[in-house]
Design brief:
about 525 residues; Rossmann fold; 2 domains
């Protein structure tokens, strides 16, 4: 690990090839990790060369994040060996991993919201003055120099709580880089940032690669693998499958390695005879957020909502579901005008809403799968004479879990221990238990693997076939175009157009999204 300061290290030339006395900066040999009822890793191995980006691919639950947490000192392996720069190491704590030259950017951001950007970056490493006090002026200067090297434009003194999710992600990246580590782990770093910010991140990654840093990059986005990764390894069900150069394989090759089967149809859209208008929205407005949004959704229809980040898509969904009641406009369900002031109002009217952020607003992380699945129905359908009908409730929750193929040892496993895709399935199951007539899905496949995506797409198609009116918000253009009967496009709080499936293509959608 370089002993120069982080800012000094970043200012060194990044174009001079660095000779390394070892072939691999990081090696994991035959790692095994068990949790109660689950073998998360079964003798897996990983080798990362210095100055390369090594992508880690696999379905949710394949063991990727578990392995990264072992490398970062968060988990201890039950068996196996970790080598850094050719030497065996024992990483007892995250601090030990950092000191050994490993930095990790987690999928769930771990910043202190009440602290400033600079304080978050240099926490536990703050510069001190002659009196032993934190030297805030120097810390500000160090942060500014770090941001200049990375071309990040943020105020070091801004409070993190004031930043967007994308800017918080940039702070996490800067913090990880500031350790001047030889190994940098990035777990889904682009899941919440725009295409422009992704391009910026890739510039940073290429610069770090040129400096000889070995980068482990976890992603579910195939296009990212081919754009940024030199090599990739595939895990499946806790087992190591293969390692290849990115230039040697196709997208279909990778999918087959990940899922152990060929996925013939990622977007299984069926032509369904549409029924009557179930939901009619006229001039819906939330003052200061979106204005005069109007559309209809028919039984069996999938209406896609597209638009750039900040266009107001999610805000419309939240208003429809009573999270933030509208300031004007009308909502009609089955031809009758309704008032939706709370989420409970919406549920009683047959609506269901899968939120964009499963961690923050979807899952009750300390609770188990059973408790999470039953949240939307426990108060009404499963209470008799003031008592919860536990046996009946457990039966339907288990049935929906099995139908959605949630990977778990039992229904009393803490939902926090599940992979992102399995958490998403539990949340979808929660709303299916309500037998909704109108289903709003906000980023239903964000951060989940290709196999789970195909399963969720198939489920959405089945629901539409059964007459459910579906509103699907997605930032992924292929998903919007592949699954929607019509596409409503938003820009800066306004509906800029609605395209029929036959007329919708990427150029037309982006043209409306950028008006």
């Amino acid at each position: 690990m370089n002993n120069s300061s982080p800012v000094e290290a970043l200012s060194e030339s990044s174009v001079i090839p660095q000779t390394k006395p070892y072939e691999y900066v990081l090696e994991v040999v035959n790692a095994r990790k068990e949790f109660p009822g689950v073998v998360a890793l079964d003798n897996v191995s990983l080798k990362v060369r210095p100055g390369t980006v090594h992508a880690l691919m696999g379905e949710n639950g394949a063991g990727k994040s578990t392995l990264m947490k072992i490398i970062a000192g968060i988990y201890h392996p039950d068996a196996g060996e970790i080598r850094l720069r050719g030497e065996t190491v024992h990483l007892a704590t995250p601090l030990a991993a950092q000191e050994a030259g490993i930095a990790m950017i987690h999928q769930e951001l771990l910043l202190m919201n009440s602290m400033t950007v600079a304080e978050n970056i240099w926490i536990r490493r703050e510069p001190h003055n002659a009196f032993g006090l934190v030297d805030h002026a120097k810390m500000h200067r160090m942060t500014t120099e770090l941001f200049d090297r990375l071309n990040i434009h943020l105020d070091p003194d801004a409070e993190v709580s004031e930043l967007s999710v994308a800017n918080r992600q940039m702070v996490e990246i800067a913090k990880a880089v500031s350790f001047d580590s030889d190994v940098l782990i990035m777990d889904e770093p682009t899941s919440a940032i725009t295409e422009k910010e992704v391009a910026h991140l890739f510039e940073i990654i290429r610069g770090l690669r040129e400096r000889g840093i070995g980068i482990v990059y976890i992603t579910h986005k195939m296009n990212e693998l081919f754009e940024i990764a030199d090599e990739f390894s595939v895990f499946r069900d806790g087992h190591y499958i293969a390692t290849h150069l990115s230039s040697e394989v196709t997208r279909d090759d990778i999918i087959q390695m990940m899922v152990g089967r060929e996925i013939t149809q990622m977007f299984p859209k069926e032509e369904v005879e549409l029924g009557d208008v179930v939901l009619s929205v006229k001039n819906l407005t939330l003052e200061g957020v979106f204005h005069d949004v109007s559309f209809d959704v028919r039984a069996g229809e999938i209406l896609g909502l597209a638009g750039l980040v900040g266009s107001g898509r999610s805000n419309v969904a939240e208003t429809l579901f009573g999270v933030t009641p509208a300031t004007s406009g009308t909502i009609e369900i089955n031809g009758k005008e309704v008032s939706i002031q709370t989420s409970h109002d919406a549920i009683k009217l047959g609506m269901a809403f899968l939120t964009e952020d499963r961690k923050e607003t979807g899952c009750f992380l300390p609770l188990d799968i059973q408790e999470n699945a039953q949240m939307a129905v426990i108060h009404d359908d499963f209470v008799k004479y003031g008592f919860v009908q536990e046996a009946k409730l457990e039966k339907v929750c288990l049935e929906i879990s099995q139908k959605l193929r949630v990977k778990t040892p039992n229904m009393h496993e803490c939902i926090e221990n599940l992979s992102g895709g399995n958490q998403q399935k539990v949340l979808i199951g929660r709303w299916l238990l309500t037998n909704p007539k109108i289903l709003i899905l906000d980023e239903p496949t964000r951060g989940i693997d290709v196999g789970a995506k195909a399963e969720i797409h198939s489920l959405i198609t089945q629901l539409a076939h059964n007459g459910v009116a579906v509103i699907m918000i997605s930032s992924e253009m292929p998903e919007v175009l592949g699954m929607s009967d019509r596409v409503l496009v938003m820009h800066e709080g306004h509906c800029t157009g609605i395209l029929d499936r036959a007329d919708a293509d990427q150029v037309k959608v982006m043209d409306l999204a950028a008006q």
